[in-house]
Amino acid sequence: MTSDLPVHSTGAATKRLVLVAGVGRSGTSLFTSILNLAGFHVPQPEVQADATNPKGFGEPQWVVDFHGRQLRSRRVSIWDSRPAAFDLTAEAAADPATVAELQRWLEVQFVGREAVVVKDPRLGWFLPLWEKAADGIGVDVSVASLLRHPAEAVSSALKWYGDWQTPASRTVSWINIMLEVERVTRGRPRVFVRYDDLLSDWSAQMSRTAAALDLPSLASLDPAVVTAIDTLVDPTLHRQKVTLSDVGVPSALEVMTEELWQELVGLSRPGGDDAASSVRLDEARERYRSFYADVEAIAQSSLHALRPVGAKAGRKPSDRPGAKAAADKSTHGGGADSAIRFVERYFPRSLLRKVSPVWRARLVRMANRAGRLVTRP
Q: What's the predicted TM-score (pTM) here?
């Protein structure tokens, strides 16, 4: 297929990077696979398909590992609901070593290629980092955000990833992530695509994407490519059709979530992504931040109960009784991070990649629960 990518005044083709961002279980894999068939390179090797996503994730393994390290080092989870968590992940873009590492990987992906698509549910946490790295090597960045009703995304996550995180917690995480993805992509070429719309008429959504991201090749696909995408797009993939009430989300949170959902859907409509929508979304963000601060204040007793025994106001952590033993435990088998290291130590990555995400998560939880019994040489 011939390339219709924009060219600079020098005549050289512009290198284009499309980042597919948004909450997991929202149709990002399908969208990425369509772009792949349309000529966009998905960096290899990919995360292997499994029961949670039988048609493939479209996620570069290097990107998943890279994001995982960045999140763990900052104690941020992929479904984190804290607004302040974005302050922590934003530090990655200010770290020259991290930017350089990503730039080196990106440069390799563009050797002999003009169009690359990168997707990972963790990507929304690091959009400023990706934009800075791409800008530094002369690659144009655009962002596609997939929109799936939060009740369906949360229900799917609960089914495949387990119930260690409550429906309410996952729902506020959806709010937190989508608000930030919308904010940081302003001023960049971007498009918001509803999962339902993609399933019902993928061609129309590719035409919208082509116009929004200045990628005319997506609007004039070869017949063979159209046939391949028709085969790929399966409306039966829409398996989770539920409401927030079905999922078990408190009514007050349901109202807030539905209001945000309607605002985001508006961005996928002609003329909906405008200054007025930005103002309303800024107001929604402030309401969420205030809501989350209230929740933290109300839950102070629960947070206090999680503090280590002996922790008192004004006492340095290093002065607590047993502080050295606690430090040793954090290094040799205590906490979620140590549980992950324990699993990775005794289960090679080559083997773990063949295990479904559901069972990988279960292994980590089992190791975490048995933390006091885990000893490491």
A: 0.79
